[in-house]
Amino acid sequence: MIEKINLNNILFLDIETVPETANFNELDSDMQALYEQKTQYQRKDDFSAEEFYDRAGIWAEFGKIVCISVGFFVIKGDVRNFRVTSFFGDEAKLLKDFNNLLNNHFNGPQHLLCGHNAKEFDIPFLARRMIINGIAIPDKLNLFGKKPWEIAHLDTLELWKFGDYKHFTSLKLMCKVLGIPSPKGDIDGSQVGHVFYVEKDIDRIVTYCEKDTIAVAQIFLRLRREELLIEDEIIHV
């Protein structure tokens, strides 16, 4: 069925998140206690809540988005391009800019969003952070009352599961087994918080995020048994 989807109608995406504050002690006492409760199951007695704070970015209640990268195909005749762009910086602004993109250019019934593990992570995280920032959730992210077949989301992890719902395959592993150049550069997801707060190098994070977005598109092409993108087809805007 995915072979029948018009590639021009898909918005590929990836997000990068960090803890909401640079250090655990910058949280107020209520948030410190709530984080301690939230992470007790994962930490057990191995780490204190403060020692575990570098992982706070995986929860929308304790993290924030610092980059959203998106990519989309522009196919005209025999010419195929993949355009990649990013929203980064102040969270409220980048969420509003992403919201405007969805509402103005990807709001039709034919439009789909696609990410890797996006249904479990990126999409819920985006929606929750929009609510926290007082931003109206665009229709493409608002799943309330929708039936499963009405949800306009594709997920390369889900497509790879083939019904095996206990299975998880990382983006890096999928790229390896499918013969796609690895999207990972000099950092990985666990280091994004350090790069953001200590190195203050948002450009490095943007590059990392855009590579992941391109990798998701490449995986989707492989699942359709189509030729991978070459460097000349990828345009950063």
Structural features, described:
The protein has 7 helices and 6 strands. It has 237 residues and is of the alpha/beta class. A 6-stranded mixed beta sheet has the order 5-4-1-2-3-6. The longest helix has 22 residues. It starts with 9 loop residues before the first strand and ends with a strand. The mean pLDDT is 93. It comes from Flavobacterium pokkalii. Pfam families: DNA_pol_B_exo2. One of its GO terms (molecular function) is exonuclease activity. Keywords: Exonuclease, Hydrolase, Nuclease. This is 3'-5' exonuclease.
Q: What features would you highlight for this structure?
A:
single chain, 237 residues, alpha/beta, six-stranded mixed β-sheet, 7 helices, 6 strands, globular, 3'-5'_exonuclease_PolB-like
Brief overview, please?
With 237 residues, the protein is an alpha/beta fold. 35% of the residues lie in helices and 19% in strands.
Structural class: alpha/beta
Spatial order of strands in the largest sheet: 5-4-1-2-3-6
Radius of gyration: 18 Å
Number of strands: 6
Mean pLDDT, all residues = 93
Would you list the SSEs in sequence order as H and E? EHEEHEHEHHHHE
DSSP helix fraction: 25-40%
Low-confidence stretches: none
Termini, distance in Å? 31 Å
Q: The biggest beta sheet, please?
A: 6 strands, mixed
Q: Please indicate the percent range of residues in DSSP E strands (runs of 2 or more).
A: 15-25%
- Overall body shape: globular
Count helical runs.
7
